[in-house]
Amino acid sequence: MDPFAGVDRYLEEHLDASLRELTGLCEIPSVGAQNTGLDECAAMVAELLRKRGFEAMLLPTDGAPVVFAERRGRSDKTLLFYNHYDVQPAEPLDLWESPPFEATLRGDKLYARGVSDDKGHFINRLFAIDALLDRDGELPCNIKFVVEGEEETGSPHLEGFVRKNTERLAADACVWEFGEVDFQGVPVQYLGLRGICYVELSVQTAKTDAHSGLGGTIFPNAAWRLVWALNTLKGPDERIRIPDYYENVIPPTERDIELATKIPSRANEYRSRYGIAGFLRGTQGGVELSLQEVFEPSCTICGLTAGYQGTGGKTVLPCKASAKVDLRLVPDQTPQEALSKLRSHLDAEGFDDVHIDFLGGIPPGRTDPDDPFVKLVVESAKEVYGVAMDVIPMVGGSGPNAIFLECLKLPVVTQGLGYPGTNAHAPNENVRLDLYLKCAKHMTRILSLFAMT
Amino acid sequence: MDPFAGVDRYLEEHLDASLRELTGLCEIPSVGAQNTGLDECAAMVAELLRKRGFEAMLLPTDGAPVVFAERRGRSDKTLLFYNHYDVQPAEPLDLWESPPFEATLRGDKLYARGVSDDKGHFINRLFAIDALLDRDGELPCNIKFVVEGEEETGSPHLEGFVRKNTERLAADACVWEFGEVDFQGVPVQYLGLRGICYVELSVQTAKTDAHSGLGGTIFPNAAWRLVWALNTLKGPDERIRIPDYYENVIPPTERDIELATKIPSRANEYRSRYGIAGFLRGTQGGVELSLQEVFEPSCTICGLTAGYQGTGGKTVLPCKASAKVDLRLVPDQTPQEALSKLRSHLDAEGFDDVHIDFLGGIPPGRTDPDDPFVKLVVESAKEVYGVAMDVIPMVGGSGPNAIFLECLKLPVVTQGLGYPGTNAHAPNENVRLDLYLKCAKHMTRILSLFAMT
């Protein structure tokens, strides 16, 4: 008899109840960048854990509190879940087809800000736990949760928190906040995350805006200063121009290239989803694109602001201008190194008037693709998805996995319900109900197998 | 006996009534760029003219209507006033100390959007006419008004209107929409205006924004495309890089330099008003600054927009970016020439993905500094201001004076109530009551003297 038959039935029968719980959590606009709803959301997360018999507490940091929870299980193995309860801003609001903080079911998808990243993943893990508790009355292993509230703003206090609580967080393995299937429905195992150094560059050239008819040929213009400063960071060849910026970049290993070669190309999926004419530097796809996507540092302008932005024209010479810039890092770059090289570079190029505001940084981090826990998670997917997970050595996004890898010495795997159309960080973020169910089923296998290792 | 003693007394006694009329006109938010309140404002302008015995009519254009009005006077000389009833957007609203569309008296100043540019000038001319009608029961000369509603958006339909109505608009001289005193209180006569070619540059690189962790090294980024395209237009040396851009620029003549040398330097005033560290290209002041300010074409970024602009960070790769760019032109450049050279340049530099939206253009125009009407206006200022006007051969701003100069063959002078702190186009636009009164007094002299030429 299939030991998971009852578990799977439980999950199928309680899907609606889990989605209702998720809907409730998504109603709290816990936007870290805008500092709204964080305390309320943390309290609800703790309450949801207590309902499952976890001992849950809100541990203060210098920013949003961390929810820590634990419950003992049958085996003495301990699994640590890392999730976060903060979400990205919902803007631009006019592109949402339903209100971002009212989870809305349309067809086979549930839409809301955070419904995937990361509230959906958190609730989905509770859902899997519910099914095992229903069957066994106990957990197969010890489980700990760390649910932080500052992931979307660069996790500025997580490292300090983990270093202060290494004994409390002691575990044998860690499951990361997210995971997904690729465009063919194949679940993917991401074993590394790029780091990030996120900055705001700003210039102020006068104390007030001027008439552009008056000052155009004689007054300094903050928007021009910003454009020229940005232009020194990267040119159309896509090479970052900051001196020695690439000196600590470790190129992909042979094993990395071997794994990357097995990954189905996402080129066509990217082209159609984003409607882009082509990829940077003319790359066509295949392993070349897979490596370019994740094994290189990036320098991305995320936003530009200056002067008049309404309809029509306004003849104004702006005194202030700013840009948000996302620098993704690869091993062994560090945020401190990127920040310091950026400052030196701007100064050397004559842009000491450009102020750098450091908005957050995380170092890159990788798990060994040959770790036994990785293998367990990858292989156990077969029973649910029909195929094992594709192992991807490195992914473009960032998260504080390096803290867990280095401070807690844990292998870190990804497992989750995302898919290429999940629109994380974008309007109309959503989860597919079929994947929501599969993800929970997979987690019941992971927990059960892990308990026996 | 002073023939203007009664006129001056009338103006002093009726100042409050004139300001009340101005307050009413400023209540209409006739923002051309946002297409609000234009018809309502045109109707009120016509009504105000009819109250003075003018025959006034609203003449349609393909945009906002032009108010045309005329009234015959004692002499057969005809003076044409050019004004406009549209105003600049009031944004940024948070910098206004009182609501922009509720004229508010604080100390010796009246604050509102349009209170100077240009509703204040229009009402002030009616005020001078009232004083002469009160004394004489008739006008000294024929007076015509052209009050358009599209000046702040580049007067796109004025040239067509003037060409279609050359007989109706026939006159002997023209008084321009604005005028001002300098920082020492000396009235200034501006005899030329730079032209303008105002464009919006926009790029779209995908159909939707992407996660900046995903796409930074492989997806095209609209903000980067815009920055690189803008960077090709002008570098930190302030020289416009568009090929042959300067070929039709006429350098200042010896007479221009002679006049410019007499102008008191505004360097210190600019430094303290705008809080700028220095002028472009290191110019210190004097005639060099005066010439650089107005006899050179400019390329000004008036606004930048892309991606996330809220507080904190959002990890997004923007699919759209745009910039507002103000190109000021000097004789004999034309807007069509600037536009065409800009397009060719962007294409040649590899930026054919940068779309140009032409938001308005006006050619530059100049009046002969030795015209008799110029002399009359300049000299008649002495009785009111204690000094003759300073003659400035060219000014940095733009307006459709070339249309009147070329189509109607009229000398065009400036006369008005502005001053360096008037904040036209900026928050807290205002008029000083003492200058409001002097301006009307000066106009009664101009009308009376002109009638006798």
UniProtKB/TrEMBL annotation, chains A, B:
Protein name (Swiss-Prot/TrEMBL): M20/M25/M40 family metallo-hydrolase
Keywords: Hydrolase, Metal-binding, Protease
InterPro entries: Cyt/Met_Dipeptidase, Peptidase_M20, Peptidase_M20_dimer
Name of a matching Pfam family: Peptidase_M20
The keyword Iron-sulfur is annotated on this UniProt entry: no
Domain Peptidase M20 dimerisation: 192-350
Organism: Eiseniibacteriota bacterium
